[in-house]
Amino acid sequence: MSELTTIVLVFISCSINLLFLLVCFMDFKGIIFDKDGTLFDYFTVWGPVITEFTEKILQEMQRDDTDKIRIRFLKMLGVGNDCMYANGLVFKSNKFFMLTRIFIFCIRYKLSFKKLVSNIKTGYFDSHNLIKDSLIRIDPGDAIHELFIKFKKNGYKIGIVTSDTAQSTNICLEHLKIDQYVDFISTFDDKLAKKPNPEALLAFCTEFSITPEETVVVGDAPVDMKFAKKGGAGYTIAVMTGSNDVKRLSIKADILYPNLKCLAADSRLFPET
Q1: Which of these, 53, 57, 77, 106, is most buried using a 10 Å CB contact count?
Q2: Does domain 24-40+142-265 match CATH 1.10.10.10?
Q3: 153, 212, 152: which is closest to 179 by C-alpha?
């Protein structure tokens, strides 16, 4: 090996190490949270809601095999008996894929595709009262509230980016007692492109004059990690309170935590801890 080659290799090695150190010790200024499955356990809140509007949908079908269809339908959406399924439609973002799955389901069980899709949309987007009732049944405790206070004390700008409606989102934030700490909200109702398109992330950065590299993204599904990667986020955190997709999240996220409370001890978020 020539002396020049050795010098080049040493330079490359030093550059990589320097880059690694810069990434590890970057001073983050903003953090974006997904809502469902991130701020709260998806199954605990949305499981009963999805089950209830499924019952209403199938009652209108007036079929003798409603029980069998209900179980298969809930599984397709991603709702099990005691947990969420990672491959459920509620965790997907590709509309063509979702509609194709529903179409195949309708063919198999001889259901009206148009009527079922319409009922699903109605059940989901008109579910704010059910969500409120479901949230009331759980005690949010103080951990998340204290975590958001800690972020604000450390100078973070906080954003929420969700595919849910603004009404349901506000109900959730108020119940968790964190609405006063949130600086930016993007929901289904605004004009920003939805995840995994990073438009909301970039809008967040622009509003507060920070770079994507100075921004953290926290979510529970692969689409959240894809959203972060496309936007150039500096740090991606996945939590296991939503899709439960350990295989893909462990690959796509920088770090995987059991729940949101674990962020309080993250040394990259809070270097002094």
Answers
A1: 77
A2: no
A3: 152
